[in-house]
User: Fold this.
Amino acid sequence: MVFDTLIARFRAADRNTRLETLLEFSRKLPPLPDALRTASDRETHRVTECQTPVYLWIGVPEGLVAVHAEVPPESPTVRGFVALLATRLTGRTPAEVAEVPDNLLDQLGLGETLGMMRTQGLTSILGRIKRGVRLAATEA
Assistant:
């Protein structure tokens, strides 16, 4: 599975190291292409279940997943999780994305670290990506 190595690494780390790793990922979120930043349908891409303004664009061009996201730098843990998902899932097949466990946060050992409200929002982000990939793959 796509996240097996990362899950093992996170599980072996202590709470502070997990958070530091998430913060490192926050600096790796690729910039949003200008065409998406100024898109007229921008609000339809917002993950409303998350308190942080998270915007996701998901596609499956040529059979491979593409995830573009925008998350403010002022929310580094959310940004880090989104960057982790975007960088690990972009270029994968829809079948590989479907295999990502819905409880990924818990498997990474982040559920107890981040608190219930943030965990619910981050779980919604993963769900949105998985649904978006499924939908885009059927439309392709």
About this structure: The longest strand covers residues 55-59. The mean pLDDT is 94. The two ends are 24 Å apart (CA to CA). The longest helix spans residues 116-139.
